[in-house]
Amino acid sequence: MTETTYPPSADFKAKAHIDADTYASMYKASVDDPDAFWADHAKRIDWIKPFTKVKDVNFKFGEVSIKWFEDGTLNVAANCVDRHLATRADQTAIIWEPDDPKDDALHITYRDLHEQVGRMANVLKSLGIKRGDRVVIYLPMIPEAAYAMLACARIGAIHSIVFAGFSPDALGARVNGCDAKLVITADTAPRGGRKTKLKDNVNQALLHDTDDVKCLVVRRTGDQVAWRRDLDFWWHEEAEKVSADCPPEEMNAEDPLFILYTSGSTGQPKGVVHSSGGYLVFAAMTQQYTFDYHDGDIFWCTADVGWVTGHSYIIYGPLANGATTLMFEGVPTYPDAGRFWAVCEKHRVNQFYTAPTALRALMGQGNSFVEGYDLSSLKLLGTVGEPINPEAWNWYNDVVGQGRCPIVDTWWQTETGGHLITPLPGATATKPGSATLPFFGVQPVVLETESGKEITETEASGVLAIKDSWPGQMRTVWGDHDRFQATYFQQYKGYYFSGDGCRRDADGYYWITGRVDDVINVSGHRMGTAEVESALVAHAKVAEAAVVGYPHDIKGQGIYAYVTLMTGEDPTEELRKELSDWVRHEIGPIAKPDLIQWAPGLPKTRSGKIMRRILRKIAENEFDALGDTSTLADPSVVDQLIENRMNKG
Ligand code: WT7
C-alpha cells in the first residue's frame, strides 16, 4: 500500500516553536518525569500562590481522583485578560464577525475586554452570584458570551454553557442539573439570516419548578421579548449601574472553572467538570503548539462556544496566550458557501480550525466559492470532531491551503479539555486521515476490545485508552462521581477509556475509527442514541424506538431511528414528519432523525436486550453481515426489517 505523507516544509519548520527533535526530546521528558515537565510548563500562566505539588492522580476504579497543581492559586480571567494589559492593552483580543457581512465587525482590545469583563462580573455580583454558584450561559456567538465566561471566572462562579441550538427542555434539564441561579441569554439571535428566539426559549425552560432562576438578557436584535417581572434584567441597563473595577477572586487550581454537558451512551447528558489551573495550562499550551501560534497572528476557530472546542480554542487557550481570536456569529453557507474564505481574507486569518463536516459540505458546492478569495494569510489549517476522510483532507490541503499549509487533525474530547493526539505542524509528517501522534504528557494505549489487554506491538487495533493523566483532564461528573468512574474507569481497569476505537500503524500513528459505544457523531457533535430514543418514546403514538448511526456523506454519521408504533396507529408519511419535528423540538435540530424506519418489532435477545449490532447493519444496507441472529427471541423480525429497509419503509 502506498501512503502519502506530508512532512513539514523547511520554511515552516524553521519558524516553528517545535521541530521533530524538540518534539522527541520534550515528549520523552514529559513521560519520564511528568512532575518536572509540568512544573516547568505550568509557568506559562500566572499563579497567585505557586503550587508545591504537581500531580496527584489515581486511576484505580473505586478510588479515582485527579488533581494537578493542587495547592496553587490563580484567577483564570486575570490570566486571560489582566496580565496582558501591561504589554498589549491596545492589541485586539477578539475580532467579532457578525452574521450579516453588511454589518460592521468589532475589534475588541484587551483594554476593552478588561472593562467589559469587570462590568459583567460586578453585574453578576449585584444579582447575587457568589463564588461557587452556577451560571448557565445560553448565548449566541456574540462578544458578551466571552465577557460572561470570563466574568464568571473572575468571581469564581462556575459557568455551564448550553449551545443556543438546544431546545427549552434540554436547556431546562441543564439548568436543573447544575442547580443554576442565573441564565444569561439574548433577546433573539440571528444565524444564517434566520433568528432564534432565545429569551422565549428561556421563558419556556424556566416555567416549571425553576421559576426563581434569574435571567440576564443581552439586547442583540431589539426584538420584543416577554419579561418575567422581578427576575429578568437587561445587561445594558445593569452594566450602567456598576463600576468596571472588580478584583479577581483568588481560586484554587482544582476549583471548577466550568461544567459542560455532553452526551453519553446511557441516560441523560452528563456534566463534565473542568478545573481552573490544569485546564488553563493545557488549553493554552495546546493552542500555542498545535497551531504553532505566534504573537500577532490572527487565530480563527469556527466552533461555537457551546461546545468544548469553543471553550478551549476560542476563549481560554488563545486569550491565556495573549492572542487575537476571531469569533464568528454566522454559518459557513450564509450568504453563500464562500463565507469562511471571505472572513479569512477580510481579517487576514493565519490559523483556521474547523470540522470535517463543514469541509465536506463546502467541497460539494464547488471550488469557485474558494478561488475568488485571497487566502495568502493562511499559514495552518486544522480539523476536529470526527475522522476526516482523505478526499476532504486533500481538498482542504490543495484548494484552501494551496499546498502551503500544514493540516493538523486534532483528536480530543469534551472530557480531555484539549488536544491529546495531534500533529505538531513543525515536527510531524502528516498522513491524511490520521490524528498522528500524542501531545506532550499523553500516553495512548491500544487495548484488545474484549480482554482489555494492552497491545504492545506497534501495529495494533482495538480501543483507545490513556495510561496516565494530563492537566486538562476532566475531574468528575457534576454531582455524580460514581458515574464518572463507571463511564471512564470501570470497563478497562487502570486506564482512562475514551469510547473510541483506533488503529496504530507501523509508524506508531493513530487512526481513530469512531465510537465503540452507543454514541453517534453527527456533524462532529456527540449524540447519545438513548437520548433520541427517550425523546421518541415520549411521543404518544410511539411504543418503542431504537436509534443507531449510519454513514452520511456530509454529516459523517446520520441518525437512523427504528420506531414501533402503538397498536392501531398508521405508519404514514405525515407521522414520520411529525416524529422528526418532535425530536427536533424535544432536544434541538442536531438530534433530528435523518431516517425513520417503521419497525413492527425490534430484534431482541431472550432477555429483552435490543441487538443494535443488527440494527446498525440493516441501516448500513449490509444485510449479509448481520452475524449470528440465532439468539434472538424472534429471528423473523430481522427479515421484516430488511424488507422494510429495501422498500424504504
Ligand atoms: C469525540 C468527542 C473535541 C472536540 C469536538 C468533539 C470524535 C474528535 C476527532 C478526530 C476522529 C474525532 C471522537 C471523540 N473526534 N476529534 N480528530 N478524529 N474522531 O468533542 O463532542 O466530546 O466528541 O469526537 O469520537 O470521542 P466531543
Automatic annotation (TrEMBL):
This protein's UniProt keywords: Acetylation, ATP-binding, Ligase, Magnesium, Metal-binding, Nucleotide-binding
Enzyme Commission no: 6.2.1.1
Residues where ATP binds: 385-387, 409-414, 500, 515, 526
Gene from which the chain derives: acs
A molecular function GO annotation: acetate-CoA ligase activity
Sequence positions that bind Mg(2+): 537, 539, 542
Gene3D superfamilies xref list: 3.30.300.30, N-terminal domain of ligase-like
Pfam family, one: AMP-binding
The name this protein goes by in its record: Acetyl-coenzyme A synthetase
Spans through the membrane: none
PROSITE patterns cross-referenced by the UniProt entry: AMP_BINDING
Modified residues (N6-acetyllysine): 609
